[in-house]
Specification:
Length: 527
């Protein structure tokens, strides 16, 4: 709707003696008796009629207090006021108090951008929990916090329900779903959820920086994206025993939340659901933890995964697992699980040894990434697949992959394992992915199987500055790009099968090595 149309609509006499705008007063939270009756004001509010309902915006940048009417009469016709227009109350630095009637059920994008409401008056918490509110954030460089530009609520906003200020929020018992962004940034000390609530919406309580403790009823099923993000004083959460899903960033930025006990009902946990400072995860058992579903965040290009959307900072969320109050350092994963899902133990700083039980076929992406204390890993003969970066930046010292169904080592699988000294890869591995063993700076020896054919030209050993022995069982030189420093090629001993010297010397990729040693691979115990 153009400004001309709004101005034309304003020419109609708007009868709202109890719903008009008032000038600012000394008391930022006036009582009902102190509020003066509103005269008839023009050029304050404008209305756009869509499908028999009115959409409202403020067209004055001088008012300090606005009361939105529940209905408006234009040209003799009366319309319910149901929507706050896009940018409808944006860039109003003097507006500090706002009255929103129950009739409002939708607030459009950037409705309150650059407008700081100090006092928000509503008539019903139940209807506010159901409001349709876009959520989006911008960074306020003065306040140094994220702000939802679509909501009238800011960090310093006090909510009034029927004229009574709310600092301890009690959600009505009739509410089942709390809408997205509904209380984002609210100045409240506590929130009480009713037994019937089932879903907490996206960013619904994010930025409520005075919240210290939350208890959820057993009826709760899901906590959505960023629901409590940046609740900086939140130190205790009781999840009850009904929550099934905790989504991405649900408790990110909750700096005081150092320990959480996850309910047995949980089946899905999102990437970075908790903060860097959440160090302790108390869980039912290791089997349960391994079966939790976790998202695999990848950008698809031409139908193929290009890169992970998981944050690249490998030190981002270091933590430990606790079972029965005891920190888990050594773990046996039973084969009955068949797979270890992506990110299952990522960032676990307490793990020292892992035995992957017979029956496990798949180790997911990032499953043991950045486990710096993880020295020993025992692989099963049933292993078939391994995900990208599965053991990147872990503390493995000696790697032995036994004969199994694994035919490839994925890219970045053991990248940055700085304590890794020796690698033994067995059949039927035929392919080694990009940078699979790069920056393994302590690596001195690697044994490659007969079945290895190559790496399709990608670098696999970049930064392995201590490497001095390569044992190759393949009769045909594998197509490998090593990526080693130039000065190492003259000194590394390369053990190859008897009768293959000419083939290796003539190979473009292997000809850079100078110290070839032919040996009987069937009887040489070094293989």
């Amino acid at each position: 709707m153009s400004n001309k149309t709004f101005i034309k609509l304003l020419s109609a006499v708007i009868m709202m003696s109890a719903c008009m705008c008032m000038t600012s007063c000394d008391d930022p939270n006036p009582s009902e008796s102190d509020k003066p009756s509103s005269p008839e004001w023009e050029n304050i509010l404008a209305f756009n009629i869509v499908d028999g309902e009115a959409e409202v915006r403020c067209v004055s940048d001088t008012v300090a207090e606005v009361k939105i009417p529940s209905e408006v009469t234009i040209d003799g016709a009366t319309y319910p006021v149901t929507t706050i227009a896009q940018e409808g109350f944006s860039n109003l630095p003097k507006l500090k108090a706002l009255y929103i009637p129950v009739s409002i059920n939708k607030i459009k994008r950037e409705a309150f951008k650059e407008t700081d409401i100090e006092s928000l008056y509503i008539e019903s918490l139940e209807s506010w929990c159901d409001i349709s509110l876009d959520y989006d954030y911008y960074y306020d460089s003065v306040e140094r916090r994220l702000v939802n530009s679509h909501s009238p609520i800011r960090f310093n906003t006090t909510l009034y329900v029927k004229g009574v200020p709310v600092y301890d929020l009690v959600i009505p018992g009739t509410v089942k779903d709390i809408s997205d962004g509904s209380f984002y940034g609210l100045n409240c000390r506590s929130v009480t959820f009713p037994k019937g609530v089932e879903s907490i919406g996206v960013a619904s309580f994010g930025g409520c920086e005075n919240l210290t403790e939350i208890r959820f009823p057993d009826s709760l099923r899901e906590i959505k994206l960023s629901a409590f993000e940046n609740c900086k004083k939140l130190s205790e959460v009781d999840f009850g025993n009904g929550v099934k899903s905790i989504f991405l960033h649900a408790f990110k930025g909750c700096e005081k939340l150092v320990s959480v006990t996850l309910p047995e009902s949980l089946t899905y946990v999102g990437v970075n659901s908790f903060d860097f400072n959440t160090k302790e995860y108390h869980i039912k058992d290791a089997d349960w933890w391994c079966q939790l579903k976790r998202p695999e965040w990848f950008v698809l290009v031409g139908g193929a995964p290009l890169f992970s959307m998981y944050p690249d900072n490998e030190d981002e969320y270091p933590h430990s697992l606790y079972i029965g109050g005891k920190e888990v350092t050594d773990i046996v994963i039973p084969g009955s699980l068949s797979k270890i899902t992506a990110d299952t133990f990522r960032g676990n700083t307490a793990l020292r040894s892992v035995t992957i039980g017979e029956g496990i076929t798949d180790v997911g992406k990032n499953a043991f990434r950045n486990c710096p204390g993880l020295k020993d890993v025992t692989f099963p003969s049933t292993l078939r697949t391994m995900g990208w970066q599965a053991f990147q930046d872990s503390g493995i010292e000696d790697l032995h992959i036994p004969p199994c169904g694994l035919d490839s080592i994925p890219q970045w699988a053991f990248y940055g394992c700085t304590r890794l000294k020796s690698i033994e890869i067995t059949e039927p591995v035929s392919y080694i992915g990009m940078m699979a063993f790069a920056d393994c700076v302590s690596l001195t020896k690697i044994v490659l199987p007969k079945t290895l054919s190559g790496s399709e030209g990608v670098i696999v050993l970049d930064g392995c500055i201590c490497l001095n022995e390569i044992y190759v069982q393949a009769l045909t030189p594998p197509n490998l790009d090593f990526g080693l420093p130039d000065n190492l090629y003259d000194n590394i001993k390369v053990y190859i099968p008897s009768g293959t010297l000419d083939a290796y010397k003539e190979s473009l990729k292997w000809s850079r090595f100078k110290l070839f040693i032919e040996t009987d691979i069937d009887n040489d115990k070094s293989f």
